[in-house]
Design brief:
Elements (H helix, E strand, L loop, with lengths): L6 E9 L6 H19 L4 E8 L3 H9 L4 H19 L6 E4 L3 H16 L3 E11 L4 E3 L4 E3 L9 E3 L7 E10 L5 H8 L5 E2 L1 H12 L5 E2 L1 E2 L7 E2 L2 E6 L1 H6 L1 H4 L10 H9 L3 E5 L3 H14 L7 E5 L2 E3 L2 E2 L10 H8 L1 H11 L6 E2 L2 H31 L13 H22 L3 H22 L1 H4 L6 H22 L4 H10 L36 H5 L5
Helix pairs in contact: 2-3, 5-6, 11-12, 12-15, 13-15, 13-17, 14-15, 14-17, 15-17, 17-18
Bound molecules: ligand ME8.
Ligand ME8 binds next to strand 1, helix 1, helix 7 and strand 14.
Length: 534
């Protein structure tokens, strides 16, 4: 088989003006499930995430809290943003902060190169700016507020707050020069996904690209422009560069770090659709100017909606991830958001839907199946998975083996398309069919008569293969439950080292023991509907 390309996937780096909510956690678990799948398939995988710490928004928040911006970001990163990774069980390979020295060095080098190569000029910006978005706005991007404290005023359509009017001497990037190359790039299949996001970007760029102001001179919380220290680099230009600064761009040429950059770049970029424009327009234009490869793909996932609105802290619809994981656990969090929302579309969150899926699909579906199979092998065969190489299998057994193959192949191709929900749906066909198979085959009845010993062997071996395959296939999605099941099945080594593309061939040779506790314990409905009093 030809060697597969390294798989480098990055999440956006998040603003640390506030604590994370489940929208941020959703991006994290999506990227993490994809990374875990590739890692478990033996690909040279790298998952990057981190925090975006410069700019006016953070500066103002820090001032409002009476601390320096660095004190503020240190505190939030430590108390809220790195703990998020544990809350939802993210196996990231690196965590970049834009205040890291390695990042500042790389940004300085990059911007100096663009300046030296004639892509940057001095000018004056006069227009709107939304500090919430950290974005220069056109009049068309604003709406007139119809109610509330800003009624009658022009406000940012996303933040519903008035924008600033800026008049500043700034440096500009000649982004307009890249318009045709960008439009040609969008013709490449898969560069921007899904189609709805691609169409929006294409029509935006076709309207004509302006040059981009890439520095600010009215405050100093940022990375200095190297040839003019009275400016700091615009926070988005600074932030986008994290994807290459973290893997060694900017390190000494020939150094190990710099070689890592050459090997890993370009990345698959997973972002919310709110920031797809930055990633599909500004970012590739910057890379083209620096003669570097553009990202492999930019995928703009949908929004989590609460009460029909995009969830956000500023509108007080934010839900903290731990409010869910404290009651349901991190596996259920991961499973629910990846399964219930078609990746790429918006999706509504509700406690009722979460509880219902937890009960039906995780507790009664996967969890119960895992308990039944491990308990029966322990009870009827002293924990040895029967060897059925000489036993003739029945049609029903063959059908399960075919479903295992289908689930494995179906999940793998879905993952290649970043269709996380489809991957889980393919795997759940196996969960459901295997549960039905056990109910129909009634191993408990077969066990009562020695004459059925061979039949019982075939059923238990088939069920074990299915459950073993599930432990492997679900490990990227529900790593804790998979590890518990793997241990009960006597699986060799750690489940996250079992090749996910070869799950269908697992047969198992270790000692099976019953699960010590259910994979997904029953949760009282009352507690489930309003954890933490939310
Ligand atoms: O934009 N539904 O950071 P940010 C789904 N620092 N995803 C959501 C969401 C929701 N309701 N709300 C937030 C920034 N997200 C910049 C990025 S990258 C170089 C710089 C997720 O803290 C989603 O991934 O505002 C969205 O794109 C991101 O959080 C915005 O995070």
């Amino acid at each position: 088989m030809p060697a597969r390309d390294p798989f480098y996937i990055a999440t956006p780096i998040f603003y640390v003006n506030d604590v994370p909510h489940i929208g941020h956690a959703y991006t994290e678990v999506s990227a993490d499930a994809l990374a875990r799948w590739h890692r478990q398939g033996g690909d040279d995988t790298w998952l990057l995430t981190g925090t975006d710490e410069h700019g006016e928004k953070i500066l103002r928040t820090a001032r409002a809290n009476g601390v320096t911006p660095k004190e503020w970001t240190d505190k939030l990163v430590e108390s809220a943003w790195t703990p998020l990774l544990e809350t939802v069980d993210i196996a990231n390979d690196d965590f970049i902060r834009t205040t890291d020295e390695r990042h500042e060095v790389a940004v300085t080098r990059f911007i100096q190169k663009l300046y030296d190569d004639g892509h940057i000029y001095a000018g004056e910006y006069e227009g709107y700016y939304c500090v919430g978005c950290e974005e220069y706005k056109q009049k068309d991007d604003l709406v007139e507020a119809t109610e509330g404290e800003f009624a009658g005023q022009l406000v940012c359509a996303i933040h519903s707050r008035p924008v600033e009017i800026l008049k500043e001497k700034n440096y500009f990037f000649r982004m307009s020069a890249f318009q045709d190359r960008l439009l040609a790039l969008y013709e490449q299949a898969d560069f921007i996904q899904p189609e709805s996001v691609r169409n929006e970007i294409v029509s935006f760029v076709r309207q004509g690209l302006s040059d981009l102001s890439i520095s600010r001179s009215s405050f100093d919380w940022g990375i200095r422009v190297p040839w003019d220290e009275s400016h700091v680099i615009y926070v988005w230009v600074d932030a986008l560069l994290n994807y290459i600064s973290a893997i060694g761009y900017g390190a000494e040429p020939g150094s190990a770090e710099n070689e890592e950059f050459a090997r890993r770049w370009p990345a698959v970029q997973l972002v919310g659709k709110d920031i797809a424009r930055f990633h599909a327009v500004i970012w590739p234009a910057m890379l083209m100017a620096a003669d570097l490869p553009v990202p492999k793909r930019v995928f703009g996932h949908g929004w989590l909606l609460v009460g029909g609105e995009k969830m956000s802290k500023s509108k007080l619809t934010g839900i903290a991830p731990h409010q869910i994981t404290d009651t349901f656990g991190s596996d259920a969090f991961r499973y629910y958001f990846l399964r219930a929302i078609t990746f790429g579309q918006d999706g509504s969150f509700s406690w009722e839907d979460l509880s219902a899926r937890y009960q039906a699909e995780l507790a009664n579906g996967f969890g119960n199946l895992a308990s039944r199979v491990t308990a029966m092998i322990t009870r009827y065969r002293d924990g040895r998975i029967p060897d059925v190489s000489t036993v003739e299998l029945a049609e029903a057994d063959g059908a399960i083996l075919a479903t295992i193959e289908r689930a494995n192949a179906g999940a793998d191709t879905a993952i290649d398309r970043l269709a996380l929900g489809e991957a889980l749906a393919a795997i759940w066909e196996l969960v459901d069919e295997l549960n039905g198979y056990i109910t129909e085959q009634e191993p408990w009845a077969l066990s009562k008569d020695e004459a059925n010993a061979e039949r019982l062997d075939a059923v238990l071996a088939t069920a074990a293969r299915g459950v073993g395959a599930l432990a492997v296939l679900l490990s990227p999605f529900t790593p804790k439950a998979s590890a518990k099941l793997w241990a009960a099945l006597g699986g060799e080594g750690a489940v996250q080292d079992a090749d996910v593309r070869d799950a269908a061939n697992w047969r198992g040779s270790g000692q099976v023991t019953p699960l010590e506790s259910p994979l997904f314990p029953r949760i009282e409905v009352e507690a489930a509907s309003a954890p933490g009093g939310a």
